């Protein structure tokens, strides 16, 4: 493929060690599914947020005295919000978003695997990693749990670009040793040592975190799943990510492939792949017993509404997953390229519609929680990201409720904050994101640098 010189190059803008942002601000101190939503939300109509060495030093009401001596970037009329968290996404699928007309298993064969075969080329991987991270940051997402491909070079490319931008990312090499094209299969005995080498190289290096990544049960032999479980458990603090119960034909296939397991989750449980930092994409067709087991083991689910609607997979029941007597950790996932938008706002809007079809009311507070602190809790990062609070990493998105003429017109008619947030998740997308800060530095998304060089 020829080099595309028009791709923009995102970069962090150098920031002084101590500086401040001013604007309205929101953040969650608790889970609105489990407590009074109004109590769970913190709101500052006019906040001063002080950043020191990439962390939030303080947040409180703005006053000239509090701001004295600090360089202050004022975002009038805007809302500072913790950077969005995407708990399930595939960067190599950036080039095949919107592939028409299939459900999961045919879609994988027809579009996904061919796109992933291209990542044998490290230059292609580097190009897509850059574009993907640019789009993610332009949409206000600052942390994601990301599937690479089976190629080690796809992981190198992704972490190298994330390290350059200093984003906190979780990623891993996909493991597959059956039921995929030969060019996407791990050689006999190769997948686990390659994963371990990548884990040792990247996990905990700066802000990068590694996830052992068996794609899903049908593409790994029982032996590979067991070995993945051993690898994950040998490295405490690392992650495991995979897919579960997304599509009914997939669930039937797993039952045939693993007759000894009591259900789909049991396939992973038997391989030692459940527990805190185990991230399961989808979980639409999980039984009550499996949801209980997710709760008991501390495993997390990624709710991917745009993907589930696009592939016709089904309606994830977020309120059933979050049932107060056995709550499961749940975050939102864009699941590109089955998902159709990088935007967490669009994803929240679709989560609302899925809840409507389930007969549930997902308020803006529920949705913004899932996209921020809820996502951080799913990733066991709730002490570092997902809130605007002292000590937290300064990953911040600045939302402009007046970003378009329609939004200006509509939000002027909102009676309170919850209504305004709901309109943002109904009408909003990347255009609402005025700025994204990563560890305190604004990310210039690079369009100004585009052009021949
Ligand atoms: N949506 C989705 N589901 C999967 N199940 C296994 N692989 C995939 C994938 O790439 N995308
Ligand atoms: Zn996925």
From TrEMBL:
Coiled coil: none
Pathway: Purine metabolism; guanine degradation; xanthine from guanine: step 1/1
Cofactor descriptive note: Binds 1 zinc ion per subunit.
EC number annotated for this UniProt entry: 3.5.4.3
Transmembrane stretches, start-end: none
Source taxon at top rank: Bacteria
One Pfam family named in its UniProt record: Amidohydro_1
Top EC class, one word: hydrolase
Cofactor: Zn(2+)
Record key words, sorted: Hydrolase, Metal-binding, Zinc
Catalysed reactions, as listed in the record: guanine + H2O + H(+) = xanthine + NH4(+)
Amidohydrolase-related domain boundaries: 80-440
One annotated GO molecular function: guanine deaminase activity
Record region (Disordered): 1-21
Functional summary from the UniProt entry: Catalyzes the hydrolytic deamination of guanine, producing xanthine and ammonia.
Entries under PANTHER family matching the protein: GUANINE DEAMINASE
Family listed: Belongs to the metallo-dependent hydrolases superfamily. ATZ/TRZ family.
Protein name: Guanine deaminase
Lineage: Bacteria, Pseudomonadati, Pseudomonadota, Alphaproteobacteria, Acetobacterales
GN (gene name): guaD
């Amino acid at each position: 493929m020829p080099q595309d010189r028009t791709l923009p190059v995102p970069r962090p803008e150098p920031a002084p060690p101590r500086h401040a942002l001013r604007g309205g601000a929101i953040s969650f101190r608790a889970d609105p599914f489990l407590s009074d939503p109004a109590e769970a939300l913190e709101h500052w109509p006019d906040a001063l947020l002080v950043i020191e060495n990439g962390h939030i030093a303080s947040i409180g009401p703005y006053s000239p005295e509090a701001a004295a001596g600090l360089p202050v970037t004022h975002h009038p009329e805007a809302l500072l919000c913790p950077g969005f968290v995407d708990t399930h996404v595939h960067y190599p699928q950036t080039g095949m978003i919107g592939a028409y007309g299939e459900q999961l298993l045919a879609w994988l064969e027809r579009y996904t695997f061919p796109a992933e075969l291209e990542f044998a080329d490290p230059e292609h991987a580097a190009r897509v990693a850059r574009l993907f991270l640019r789009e993610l940051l332009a949409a206000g997402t600052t942390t994601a749990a990301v599937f690479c491909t089976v190629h080690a070079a796809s992981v190198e490319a992704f972490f190298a670009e994330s390290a350059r931008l200093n984003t906190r990312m979780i990623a891993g090499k996909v493991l597959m040793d059956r039921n995929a094209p030969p060019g996407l299969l791990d050689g006999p005995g190769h997948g686990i040592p390659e994963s371990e080498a990548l884990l040792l190289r990247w996990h905990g290096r700066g802000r990068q975190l590694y996830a052992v990544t068996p794609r899903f049960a049908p593409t790994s032999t029982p032996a590979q799943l067991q070995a993945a479980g051993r690898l994950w458990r040998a490295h405490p603090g690392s992650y495991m990510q995979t897919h579960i119960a997304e599509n009914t034909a997939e669930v039937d296939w797993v039952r045939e492939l693993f007759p000894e397991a009591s259900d789909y989750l049991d396939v992973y449980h038997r391989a030692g792949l459940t527990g805190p930092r185990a991230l399961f994409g989808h979980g639409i067709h999980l039984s009550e017993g499996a949801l209980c087991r997710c709760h008991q083991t501390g495993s997390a689910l990624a709710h991917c509404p745009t993907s589930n609607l696009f592939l016709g997979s089904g309606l994830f029941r977020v309120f059933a997953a979050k049932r107060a007597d056995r709550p499961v950790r749940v975050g939102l996932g864009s699941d590109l390229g089955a998902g159709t938008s990088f935007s967490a706002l669009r994803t929240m809007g679709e989560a609302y519609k899925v809840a409507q079809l389930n007969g549930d009311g997902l308020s803006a507070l529920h949705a913004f929680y899932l996209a921020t602190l809820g996502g951080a809790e799913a990733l066991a990062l709730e002490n570092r990201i997902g809130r605007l609070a002292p000590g937290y990493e300064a990953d911040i998105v600045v939302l402009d409720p007046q970003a378009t003429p329609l939004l200006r017109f509509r939000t002027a008619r909102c009676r309170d904050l919850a209504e305004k947030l709901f309109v943002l998740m109904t009408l909003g997308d990347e255009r609402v994101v005025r700025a994204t800060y990563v560890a305190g530095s604004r990310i210039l998304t690079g369009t100004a640098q585009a052009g021949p060089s």
